[in-house]
Amino acid sequence: MKKIIIVTAAILMALALSACTVTPKDKDSTAKTTAAPTSVKAGQQETTADKADSGTTAAPETTPAATEAPTTPAPTTTVVPVKEAFQVGDTVSIKDLTFVYVASGEYESDNQFLQPADGNKYIFLEFYVEYNGKGNTSVSSFDFEGYADGYSVDKKYSFDNELSGSISSGRWNQGRIYFEVPQDATKIEAEYDVNLFTDEVIKFVYEGEQNSGFVPEKKIDADPDALVPGGTVETKELKITYLDCGVAVSDNQFLQPAEGYKYIYFELEFENISSREQSVSSLLFNCYADGKYCESHLMVRDDDLSATLSSGRKTKGSVVFEVPEDATVIELEYETSLISGKFIVFSYVNK
Question: The whole model's pTM is what?
């Protein structure tokens, strides 16, 4: 009986051990899990980690880079180096403006009340400036700052051919800026302020007596829509009649045109045709001779045009400018809107 019990216990133990034993094949089939996709370099396919498993092969997953059509690489941008400081003869374009550094040198004033301090001298830098933007823009000596050996120097005004004025699209100006600098200064530069709201400047170096020989091209294409004497034009607010034009003669010995120049006048009438008060100002006129900006002279005649008009009222007067005697095309522009930059053009007719 005891023998039977022992045999029976041995059989039961063998069966229990058999139930707990797992073959290697069973271990693979029960423990196997799918790994998360592993990313590879761009342009290659992404596969699952168990792709090489002895079971079924998973379909390869592809990244967008593998299915998209090849694209053309973006063009590279070539950066053109900008000179640290421009010299006489150089041309530089700044937005809608083109500058030509025409000449430089020392300046001697013939006015006994305008002389440099002891140890100082006056110098000038001369520029040609052309504008090709919308409306008009102003370029003057106020846009420049001067430095001698790193120190700020004073600008000087009221000298011959000073650079100043408003230029409309396609027009140009040429003039000088003046500084008072130490006679022994070794490095003199002028900086043009490109934008009042940024620190962007363009540098021009002064190197003594220099002249590029640059001669500006005259622009003699007359505006086909320009008014001639007797013509009338209307805006929303004003009716403008071009009455007359001619040579203006000054009886002031201290107010005479430069050699080779003459004073001319444009006589106009303005009528307020709106229901609101309107202002007319001589400062809204600009004159160009063969495309070049001309200086205005308000004191040559005593019939200044500026006035404030109530509805239905009129004013009559003239504006005077100094122009070259040999100018071919002389045109007067009146800016009707500071916002839109629109102009009315009046043609000067030689008599």
Answer: 0.73
